[in-house]
Amino acid sequence: MERIAHRANTRKRIREGIRARFDRFEVDLWNHNGRFILSHDPVFGPFVFGSSGATLSSRKWLYVRWGWPFLTLAKLLRDKRLAPLPSLLIDLKGAWPDNALEHLATLLQTYRRSGDAICTQNWEQLDRYARIDPKRTRIYSEAHQDRLGELFLRMERGETIAGLSINAAALASDQPLDPLRHILARSPWFIVYVWNIPDFPTLRNLQSAGIDGAIIDYLGWI
């Protein structure tokens, strides 16, 4: 099972993840006129607007934060101090026109980032990226169990979808692992990453069910 550092949107968090020997980093990526900025919440000028900020914040009441200077994807990939950089799970945020997706694909190819995966909750973005960079691993992200219908329909049609990144809360029910087992039974090679895992018993249950990666907020947790 991969250990994936959640919201690795700053050099500090990435350095901590490298020291803790995480296998992969989940980063949140916004397109700002061709500049790819790492931040969980939206960026306007030098500010971040949202309860989480660029990465994780314990001060949820603080909605506006000073975020400049932001880490960009190009700076991250060029930073030799972080080399060798583990594979990334790149979560696309906001609007991504075709020219931005093409620029992103070119950037990843230039830096030979074959192990990096693209992730989004937007099927239309995922489809457009597939046409631009068909060999890239593409993962659908979902926070709600009742929105998995489109994924099941696409799998039944035989579409090439590498995996699912899902909120642990979306698996919560009277039989919490049933949706997960349903997905894995349909396609044993399908990648499943889970985030917002609340405790060790849940993690152990998910691991025994066959998940491929746990996306972890607090890097000292596992």
Can you summarize this structure?
This protein has 222 residues and is an alpha/beta fold. The chain has helices spanning 11-19, 73-78, 98-110, 123-132, 149-156, 178-186, 200-209; strands spanning 2-5, 24-32, 35-38, 43-44, 47-49, 64-66, 87-93, 117-120, 137-142, 163-167, 191-195, 213-216.
**Beta-strand fraction estimate:** 25-35%
CATH architecture: Alpha-Beta Barrel
Instruction: Provide the CATH topology.
Output: TIM Barrel
Helix content: 25-40%
Question: How are the strands of the biggest sheet laid out side by side?
Answer: 1-2-7-8-9-10-11-12
Shape: globular
- Give the C-level CATH assignment: Alpha Beta
Q: How many structurally independent domains?
A: 1
Distance between the termini: 12 Å
Low-confidence runs (pLDDT<50, min 5 residues)?
A: none
Count the helices. How many?
7
Based on CA atoms alone, the radius of gyration comes out at 17 Å
GO molecular function: phosphoric diester hydrolase activity
InterPro entries: PLC-like_Pdiesterase_TIM-brl
Organism: Terrybacteria sp. (strain RIFCSPHIGHO2_01_FULL_58_15)
GO biological process, one term: lipid metabolic process
Describe this structure in words.
With 222 residues, the protein is an alpha/beta fold. The protein has a single domain (2-216), classed as Phosphatidylinositol (PI) phosphodiesterase (TIM Barrel), CATH 3.20.20.190. It is built from 7 helices and 12 strands. It has helices at residues 11-19, 73-78, 98-110, 123-132, 149-156, 178-186, 200-209, and strands at 2-5, 24-32, 35-38, 43-44, 47-49, 64-66, 87-93, 117-120, 137-142, 163-167, 191-195, 213-216. The strands form 2 sheets. Strands 1-2-7-8-9-10-11-12 form an 8-stranded parallel barrel. A 3-stranded antiparallel beta sheet has the order 4-5-6, with no helix packed on it. Strand 10, helix 6 (178-186) and strand 11 form a beta-alpha-beta unit. The longest helix is centred in the middle third of the chain and has 13 residues, at 98-110. The radius of gyration is 17 Å and the shape is globular. It starts with a strand and ends in a 6-residue tail after the last strand. The model has no long low-confidence stretch (mean pLDDT 90). This is GP-PDE domain-containing protein. GO terms for molecular function: phosphoric diester hydrolase activity.
